[in-house]
Fold Cilia and flagella associated protein 99.
Amino acid sequence: MAYYGKCIETVIEKLDKFTPKRDNPEQFLEAVALSLQALSPQTQSFVLEVLSGCLEYRKLLTIVVDAFYVEDGRLCLLVDRSRFMVICYLATFLLEELGFQLFCNIIKSQPVDKMCKFLRFFFNPLHLCSWIKDEWSLIYEPAHVKENWLDPLMRWQPKVQELINHLEGMSASQSSPLKTKAKVTEPKEFNLTAPRPRTIPAPELVPVMAKPRPVPQSTYQPPKEQQQLETVKRHNRRKAEELLLRANIEELRCAMPRSCGEPVQVPHQKVPPNIIAVTTYVPDNVPVKLNATAILREGALYQRQVEQELQRVDKLVDGAGDFSEFLEWQKKMQAKDREEQLAASECRRLQGKLSHEEAVLARQSLMQENKQRVEQQKEQMAKLMLQHAETRLREDRSRKQLVEQVIEGQKNVKAAQTKLTKGRRQTVQEVIEESRGLLRRRAQAAQEEQRRRCELISQLRALETQPTRKGKLVDLTQTPGYGLEGEMSIVELRERLALLKENQRRKEEEKRDQIIQGKRTKSQELQNTVEQISLCRAAMGRSAALRWEEKKALAAAPEAPSQDERVQQLRRRISERAAERSRQAALLHVSAPRAAGPKPRVSPGWWEEPGRLKAGAGWGWRARRAGTGVEEGGMAGRSAPGRSQERAREAVGGVPARADAFSDLQTQLEAQHWLELERSRERRLQALQQGGSGPGPARRLEAA
């Protein structure tokens, strides 16, 4: 028995050294064979055969051992993992070859308790026929697993059960005398110091509540800020209504550009005394304070300009050519570019006018197309309604068939429910039995854990009773004597640190003096640069004033009107489109009285009426140029010309007369509108020509 125990221990030792990710099984077996040359040939063959089998069927053995550790072997050590794998291999693959008697000797040579647990788990018929069979069938063929491995195990199961019972009896006989000799731990009371008697605390003082203040009267009154806000709201609303009325009566100032010298007229209004007026300050031409970087950058710029001017003078002295001819050519080209820009702007204006005419024609054609599209959609809608009715009939038939099928299926529900209830009851019984076993094992584990904790507590108390040294004397003037380079005492270290701090402070003072001297030098250089920049700016201002006078003289000269071919062609196209639009409008107005039934008091071309839609959609300046009124949100009233026109419309009776009156009025308003727009654009172009050489973008924005 001892011989087989040594063989199994050798196999377990070699199997523990094997690492699947790092070692190759063939090379590992060769190394093991070399290390076992001192043993007998019979022992070598047995050890190598068992070891090679464990490596070959490692996946099958791992499944069984992992499940054992999860269920019955939770209290077993992981060190015995290789032992369980070897026993599992012997029982599965070598039990027929070894014989049951030799297998019993091998089992008895191992720890009895561990072998009982593992054999009871592995030879359980429920485990062999259920999950072990399923897991092994995933790796090998199910027929091979059942025929070669599971059937032999089921045949040997009764004898193995007798072996398990025999081993349990042996373990009970060995453990019974030990239990009689065990001494029960007798707990002793702790020798604790008696606590001092508690002192009776003094009674707490009863707090005296302060007299509450009465509720102020302002709580029940509305705040003054709300009244002030209401006053401000009323003032702002009245001011907005006045501005809206003025905008409806007068024309917009952006359409009537003023000359460059004309001052801006701001209407004065009376503000109530309780309204805080916001003052707008106009900034003066205050010089901007520059930082050091800006001063140096501008000084370098002027210095480069002076050097370039000196180089140019030197070249002229040496006999280089002048740029007067180039400047004259440049002026001619600039004048030509200016003429082309004016012609291009005129072309863009005429193209916009042409696109307006074409849009009116397209709108009229779109009305006809919309009517045809509406008729087509009505026909399509009727067809879709017929198709929808047919679909509803088919869906009703399918629903009736589905209801009949559901009624037939409900008849078989009761039989299925009874069968399901029986299966659930059986499952509940199995779960209850498993939970009882788990509770039993958990109680045993808790007892073992409690025993281990008691042992640890006794060891900790024994360590606490040992005396310890708490204090240690330190001499600050003594060198530790560790043999290190530069070793010194704490007092010497403090002196050295004080000397280092003194040297560092002296260096900081010297550095501070150097920085102050550098700042003074830099400030002097910046002052000299600022003086040079002021001189250069004065010179550049004088030269800019001379250039401005020259440009003003050039702009004052009258220019001939543009004779570009594109402009002439666009004007001809616009006149043709206007004539065509007037003809179509006349045809529409003539055909309007033929419609049957009364019509509302709206012109057929209401979308083209200058005072209605265009005013609401952002085109109100055209209506105001034409003299018509605009009604916005019910806040402001209409102008006098607008009210007179409405009275004229109400006084006229009959649809044909009203249509003719609208057509005449529309023609007059369109003509007046385009005339005013043409004059406004001419004034704008003249203002651009006069202000094109202005001092900056402010003059160009004012002219626009």
Q: What stands out?
A: The chain is about 70% helix and 0% strand. The radius of gyration is 56 Å. The chain has a mean pLDDT of 75. The first helix runs from residue 2 to 16.
